[in-house]
Amino acid sequence: MSPSPKNSTLQKIFTNEDATKIGMWLFISTELLIFLGVFLCYGIYRILNPVAFNLASQELSIGIGALDTIVLLLGSWVMIKSTKLLKANRKGMSVFSMAIVLFLGFIFIVNKYYEWKGQFTNGLFPGSADLFRLGQGDVLFYGFYFFITGLLILHLLVGITLISILAVRVNNSSNAKPYISISTLATKYWHFTTVIWVLIYLLFYVTT
């Protein structure tokens, strides 16, 4: 029975090593420039509104931010292990490790949802009349905060989707070797989201 066109396309994408590497690095480089641009704007406005930004940052929970950091760092470590297991042809353990990474990503998103929910309850979100009454500095701080954390979650969802597809393909394949390079790139992408989150944590939660 010949493979369907859809499966054939996926197979080509996930086995064309050179094209995938170039595509992933271009994507990461482009997204890095976007985040750096936002961080630069945030830094400028923080210098212009030091007191308001410092007071606004104290409303964020350092503990929750630290938990999010541990979750993503652990995900990076497990993804490294998953790729090593794939290289050792331990397909089952590699897929299991990817499932752990996906679970950690889910924990991060759920944790962020409840953090946002608390901020919405307290009126600390863009467009809120309560936030507007606090002053322009607070409006800017939370505008940056929600934009950049939301952008990060979108990128995390891309990573979760990539790893999900990879896990399914590896699990259904009799030969896992063609997917080692993809696993390596997925690991690097997860590292990218982790580094971005660490910068967010330092700039928004820790810096006062």
Quick structural overview:
It contains eight helices and no strands.
Written overview of the protein:
The chain is mainly α and 208 residues long. It has eight helices and no strands. It has helices spanning 5-13, 17-48, 50-57, 62-87, 91-121, 129-134, 136-172, 180-206. Helix 4 runs antiparallel to helix 5. The N and C termini lie far apart (63 Å). The model has no long low-confidence stretch (mean pLDDT 87).
How is the secondary structure organized here?
Blueprint: H1 5-13, H2 17-48, H3 50-57, H4 62-87, H5 91-121, H6 129-134, H7 136-172, H8 180-206
The total count of strands amounts to 0
The CATH class turns out to be: Mainly Alpha
CATH superfamily: Cytochrome c oxidase, subunit III, four-helix bundle
Write the CATH architecture name. Up-down Bundle
As for the number of domains, it is 1
Rg (CA only): 20 Å
Q: Give the fraction of residues assigned to helices.
A: over 70%
* Estimated structural class: mainly alpha
Task: List low-confidence stretches.
Answer: none
Main beta sheet, described? none
Q: In percent terms, what proportion of residues is strand?
A: under 5%
| Average pLDDT over all residues | 87
Encode the helix/strand succession as letters: HHHHHHHH
Shape: elongated
Separation of the first and last Cα atoms: 63 Å
Q: Oligomer, anyone?
A: single chain
CATH topology: Four Helix Bundle (Hemerythrin (Met), subunit A)
Q: Number of helix segments?
A: 8
